[in-house]
Structure formats: structure tokens, C-alpha cells
Amino acid sequence: MKALSDFQIIQRGDDGFGTLSLEGALPERWPDGTPLTVSVLREDDMLYVIPSLPCTVEGREWKVEARLPEGGLYRVRVEGQSGCVIDACHVGVGDIYVVAGQSNMAGFGKDAAFDPVTLGVHMYSGDGTWQLAMNSLWEGPGSCPALSFGRRLKAQLGVPIGIVASAVGGSFIKEWSPCGEDGKLFRNMCRQLESVGPFKGYIWCQGCIDAHWGDPPRYLDDFRAMLAAWEKELGPHPMLTVQINRWMATDIHQWDVGWGTVRDAQRRAALEIGNVYAVPSIDMSVTDGVHNSGEANVVIGERLASTALKELYHRPGQTAAAVTGAEYIDGTHFRVRFTPGHDVFAMDDIPCGMDAEDEGGLVPCVKAVCAEDGDGLIVETERPYALPARMHYAWRAHPPAFLLRDAWGMPVLSCYGVEIAAPGSAE
Predict the structure, then answer these.
(1) Counting beta carbons within 10 angstroms of the beta carbon of residue 3, is it exposed (0 to 12), middle (13 to 18) or buried (19 or more)?
(2) pTM of the predicted model, to two decimals?
């Protein structure tokens, strides 16, 4: 960081302090070597946290480094006898998240929902400026989950939250990786972060276009490669992802396998890749067939924040259940297991868009009851099936809205192609 602007957020370290590093040149009419000091006061009570810290001045160049406690908002002034060089308001020290992906993270929810701006939730926008985070300034104009995500974290953590707006509508996953076709969006994100400085993590919603016109079977490999490239360039950071919602076109069934495959890659990424977490969106409403509605974005943002609170901050929060395996019982039954700590149930024993598939084709499921030992669901099929077989759940491009949920009401992440293992074997 070399300059400072209104609404800027500085990433805090593990010790609860952020580093304010500033430098610049004296104004033209000021004498060489003019002494400068930096002062920082809290805007809520006018208490100085740094009353007066001398800057280093050599000729016409000056610089200063100061440690600020997490919180704020602060007013920061760099000044001398001849006047003020920097006077920045609403500066905070907290956590910064990069918002990446395609249109559902860029702001396309069009209906009305209460999703207010909040002082202390600020955005580094595509034009290179810090400002209050608000949905109308996103790519859309429309809403995305980032604003409610930041608002919930600020309320629970008591520190400002910064959002770096990097998402671009219609973008393929390979555009986000330097090992892909051109990596232009990755490079743009890196340019933004050169100005922003250190950050906490990513929130990511992408995959609809890859489910349609990309290479769905490669999505998990491409996601792994993308994260590896990001880590190499930017260091390790947690990734909070949104499993893609639905596509409500007239010719949807030709896209079923692609959407199911991408959703399953997102489920597997959360299970198999460290520091990756996924939340569902499949129960949420859409406004135009594929873009999440305004009210949906509020809920999705809160789910992301709740997951972050539990997994990243070790605070009370909530995570989504995921299918971890399926096991053969007999020709018309199999058991589905879920991530530990989640009690999953099917309302009225309805299997909620669940199918088996063997060499004879799809086998609809007709009943799902809680296992007597409490470990998963026992699922009954419409007709006998034979191994080898797989199971799918909420996998179609436009799946049913009636879904499996855990005891806290969170929908289970969708899956596709989970092997129904023979007795005594693992998935």
C-alpha cells in the first residue's frame, strides 16, 4: 500500500493489527525535507490511537509505517506545518475477501430484497477505488451474495470487512487460471490485489457456463489447477464456494449431466481439497432462469458467512452436509452416508430428486428413511438395480425444489455419479 483513500480496508494479521504503509512526494511548493507526521483517530469517539508519529522524509520523498489495531473506522491524516498530504476517512482494519466467479457473483439478481449498505462493509471496485459496498455498484446492476456475506461477518466479528470485486459474468473457469487458455481474469485479480495488499480469502460462485459449454468432466481438475496456481502466486487462502443453482430452459434435459457433473465436482472439492468449503444454492429462487434472485443472494451470502464463522473463525456457524458414499444393501435398497455431524432427513420419506443408475439406465428412487443406527438414509428404488451402479441426488439442470435437509434446515449439497459400493468395500 502506497496511498490511502476513504473507505479503505486493511487486512489484519493474526495478532489483530494491520500495517499501514504509506509513502509519497511532498507537494510542489513545500520545501525539501518538510517534517510530516501521521495521526489516526477513531471516528466513533474521536480517540487517537496514534496521536502523532513522525514520517521519514528524505528530500522530497516521505514514508511511514504504523500498526493499527483491528476495528475502526479511522480517520488518517498525514500533515505538516504547510498543510495536509493525506486526509482519509472511514478506514478500517479487518478482513478482506476477493469475490470471484461469473454472473451470480457479479450482481444479476434483479428483484427487490432488503440488502442494505453498511458502513464498515466496503468494496474495492473494478475502477480501482474503495467505496461503500452496495449492490448497485456491481456488474449487473443487481445483487450478489457478497454484501450480505460482509454484513453478517461484520456483525458477528466486530471488525470491518472489505470486498474486492473481481467476478465477471459469463466467464469460464480456465479464464481464472494462468495455466488455462489465457488466464486474463486471474491476472486482473492479481493487479487488483497489488493495490489492495494482503487479504483473508475468496468467495467463489462459478460453473454454470462450464456445465453448458465447457468441459464438465474436467471441472474438478481445472478447479484444482486453478487453486494451485492461485496459491503459488498469492499464497494459501481459504476458498468459500457456492454450488451452482439451476437452469430453467425449455430444453433443460440435454444439460442434466453437465450440471450434475459440475455440481458434483464442487461437492468433491469441498470434501477432498483442504481449506475449500461449499454451500448450496439449489433451493433458492431465480429471477430469469439462471440468475439467483435478490432474496436468494441475501440467504446465500449468509450461508457463506455462517460457514466462514464456523470453519475459519471457530465461532458458532453452520456448514452444509454432503454425500460421502453409498453402499449396496440389496437389489432395491442402498444406504447413503453424509459428512459427520449432520442428521439428514427426507421430509415424508420422499427421496427428493434421487436416482440410481445401472447398466440398464436410470432407476428412480421412491422412498428414503433414516437408518435405524442413525448413520445416513436407507433408500428404496422403483425397480431392482444391479451393480455396478451409481446414485445421483438433485443433479438435473432443473431439479425439484423439495430437497434433503439436515436438522438445521440447510439443504444437502447435490451429487452425481457416486458409486454404490458393494458390501464390504469403500466408495
Answers:
(1) exposed
(2) 0.94
How far is 302 from 146, CA to CA, in rounded Å? 9
Per residue of the chain (427 residues), what is the pLDDT tens digit? 467 999 999 999 999 999 999 999 999 889 999 999 999 999 999 999 999 999 999 999 999 999 999 999 999 999 998 899 999 999 999 999 999 999 999 888 888 888 989 999 999 988 889 999 988 666 667 889 999 999 999 999 999 999 999 999 889 999 998 875 678 899 999 999 999 999 999 999 999 999 988 899 999 999 999 999 999 999 999 999 999 999 887 677 788 999 999 999 999 999 999 999 999 999 999 988 889 999 999 999 999 999 999 999 999 999 999 999 999 999 999 999 999 989 998 888 999 899 999 999 999 999 999 999 989 999 999 999 999 999 999 999 999 888 999 988 899 999 999 999 998 775 4
Report all structural domains of the chain as residue ranges with CATH numbers, in order of start: 9-89 (2.60.40), 93-311 (3.40.50.1110), 323-421 (2.60.40.1220)
Burial class (CB in 10 A: 0-12, 13-18, 19+), 176: buried
d(CA 124, CA 129): 6
Where would I find the beta strands (DSSP E) of 28-82? 37-42, 48-54, 56-58, 61-69, 71-80
Q: How many Å apart are CA 345 and CA 386, to the nearest integer?
A: 25
Residue type at 47? L
